[in-house]
Amino acid sequence: MSDDILYGVNPVREALRGNRRAFELFVQTSGSDHRIAKIVALAEEKGVAVRRRERADLERLAGNSHHQGLVLRVAPFAYTDLDDFLAAPTGDAPLFLLMLDGIQDPQNLGALIRSAACAGAQGVIIPKDRACGVTPVVEKASAGAVETLPVIQVTNLVQALERLKQAGCWAYGLAGEADKDIYQTDLRGNLVLVIGSEGEGMRPLVRKQCDGLLAIPQYGGVSSLNASVAGGIVLFEAARQRSRP
Q1: CATH assignment at residue 52
Q2: What are the helix (H) ranges across 148-226?
Q3: How many structural domains compose the chain?
Q4: Domain that holds residue 117
Q5: Which of 23, 57, 74, 224 lies 20 to 30 Å (CA to CA) from residue 1?
Q6: Are 168 and 140 within 8 A, CB to CB?
Q7: Max CA pair span of the chain
Q8: CATH code at 234?
Q9: Conformational region of residue 102, where left means phi above 0, alpha means psi within -120 to 50, and beta covers everything else
Q10: How does DSSP classify residue 27?
């Protein structure tokens, strides 16, 4: 299994702060960003080798020009097992999870993971097949959020929903045609929010396994929202409700 290559200030910083094993940090020779100096110090503190390279070398390593002067070679991303996640103690906090059914665009996946982390979700569940996994592009789009909360990869979303409902969760899926909207629904307690793919939405069996379908009210002429935008809206509505006694 080959190592992963991360790039960009936030993904590299969060990887160095987390538990992921890091091997080498490549830094642009002409970089003057004060954030880079702090990241170099963090790498040295953790015993990670620091190599100075020209910008063209970093572009070759990262595969694009969006590296912000930093490229980090790390161990492959480790997904979390659902049963291991449920077995871990969470204190008194009710479960709050985001499930993604077939998100294909790495930018959308990264944005949804970032929103989930910012809204206080405890994990993101994705399918193993027919969906985007965690890649360097996803890590960059998430601004390093994939290093701060579990990404749970499962073989079967329907079975995962059954397991979560056994653990006491209510599952709500986003659907534009739903009669009930997110502002009319109690999103406190043990909760799984399900977002479908960019084009097709939730698959029929996943939709059927949800306890209810919810819509986001829309007032303009556009008929639908981008998956990552819709996910961010419902995540923060849940966060707003959950912040109240």
Answers
A1: 3.30.1330.30
A2: 157-166, 204-209
A3: 2
A4: 82-242
A5: 57
A6: no
A7: 57
A8: 3.40.1280.10
A9: left
A10: E
Shared domain for 132 and 207, answered yes or no, is yes
Determine the Cα–Cα distance for residues 203 and 102; give it in Å rounded to an integer: 9
Cβ proximity of 31 and 4 under 8 Å? no
Return per-residue pLDDT of the chain as tens, 245 residues: 478 899 999 999 999 998 889 999 999 987 667 889 899 999 999 999 999 999 999 999 988 888 989 999 999 999 999 999 999 877 778 999 999 999 999 999 999 999 999 999 999 999 999 899 999 899 989 988 999 999 999 999 999 999 999 999 999 999 988 999 999 999 999 999 999 998 888 999 999 999 999 999 988 766 678 899 999 999 999 999 999 87
- What DSSP string runs through 92-116? TPPPEEEEEES---HHHHHHHHHHH
Question: What are the tokens at 97?
Answer: 């999870």
CA distance 110 to 127: 15
Q: Does residue 28 sit in the same domain as residue 109?
A: no
Residues 69, 104, single domain; the answer is no
Cα 163 to Cα 82, 102, 166: the distances in Å are: 9, 19, 5
Distance CA 159, CA 152 (A): 13
What are 97's strand-pairing partners? 123, 192
